[in-house]
Amino acid sequence: MEADTLELESFLPYRLYRLADAVSREFSRVYKDRHGLTRPEWRTLAGLGQHGTMTATALGEQSAMHKTKVSRAVAELERRRWLTRKPDEKDRRVEHLTLTRAGLTAYREMVPLAKAFERDLLGRLNASERAAVTEGMAALKGALDRSTTQL
Amino acid sequence: MEADTLELESFLPYRLYRLADAVSREFSRVYKDRHGLTRPEWRTLAGLGQHGTMTATALGEQSAMHKTKVSRAVAELERRRWLTRKPDEKDRRVEHLTLTRAGLTAYREMVPLAKAFERDLLGRLNASERAAVTEGMAALKGALDRSTTQL
DNA sequence: CCAAATTGGTTTCGTTTGTAACCATCGAAA
DNA sequence: TTTCGATGGTTACAAACGAAACCAATTTGG
């Protein structure tokens, strides 16, 4: 291989992105085809389903979304009446978000599908491959944290 | 952990996406900050730099981009005079794309930066972690190919 | 107590994206 | 050779996005 050439197919950022995109696209069927949700909306639903009640800021932190994404996702889920906002008593800038019964129903419907998706995907791997996936992701995350922090 | 709850932080599609996004964002400095390129434009440049001459379709296949992305990226690189189009002799629908001297210069400038980025990132890992990354990604890709094909 | 800086969240604006429609050309089949 | 489906590539349109400006409420520091 030539030294002044980059082989895109084996370039880590490219491979990783492509992989994540493919997995994510595949999984998006669960929330997109089924309920017409966008990814931020799905993540918002998942965050609230998991934690019960959260603020928009907390949602953004948990699921790594920009505040504008959170804002729009929350607005849409509210329009669907899948969540409600309750102003904080002490700090009137803050809103506490909670799923409605309808939102919770949708969430509960999707959780098993999400789990099945993950199980199916990992089920195609043998134990050592699964271990490699886990270890590799953790290691990369660690490396990334180290490099990002050092800025 | 409750059975009817999904822990987003450890959910594979989410973790993988987040990881790829972080790596990709970090790397985008190389082409975005430096030359104001978008990702499709960078991939186009990388494809042509690597292969010399390609058609738009081939570019799309190599770097997993939708044809509209390719079309726009090519148009922009042409506007910059970083590539030229040459119509195919036999099939007048097809265009052969080649980097100009200026495009090649930009490419040659970025290749070492890309390699350094990858080397730095992987350099933070020990040998077994690196192996895990490689093996894990290959395994996941395999699993994904198997599931997507089966549709 | 007041001005300035900060924070939670929304809105605006320009850019990027995906889907679908589209145009031109080509190949195969009638 | 004419027609019809497939293919290479572009364009139009609407949705999604990020950055920055913005509003309101809160904290900080003089």
TrEMBL record, chains A, B:
Write down what this protein is called: Transcriptional regulator
The domain of life for this entry's organism is Bacteria
Q: Which GO terms describe its biological process?
A: response to stress
Matching entries from InterPro entries are given as: HTH_MarR-typ (IPR000835), MarR/SlyA-like (IPR039422), WH-like_DNA-bd_sf (IPR036388), WH_DNA-bd_sf (IPR036390)
PROSITE patterns associated with the record: HTH_MARR_2
Looking up Gene3D superfamilies in the UniProt record yields: Winged helix-like DNA-binding domain superfamily/Winged helix DNA-binding domain
Tell me one GO molecular function of this protein.
DNA-binding transcription factor activity
Ranges for domain HTH marR-type come to: 9-142
